[in-house]
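Table S2 (continued). Query chain:
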Amino acid sequence: MDIDIRHIAKLSRLRIDDSELAGYEKEMADIIAMVEAMPDIEDELTVDPAEAMTLRADELGEKCFSRDEILKNAPKTVAGCVVVPKTVD
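Corresponding output:
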């Protein structure tokens, strides 16, 4: 399988030196081989009743923070909300 590491790096906005390309190609090929070697599973996973999972109870922590305490660490806030950079045009 031919893996275009330069294209993947471009999509990921990563800079990869030419000297590192061979190493990354080998690592990517190893990952793909591992995934291809994984066994197929049935459409529905079965759960063994004898080995039932025990879920922890959801509990609130003892210390609760006010909105002002949380927002004071944000770099920019407007009307009680955190302002983040636009990521999609």
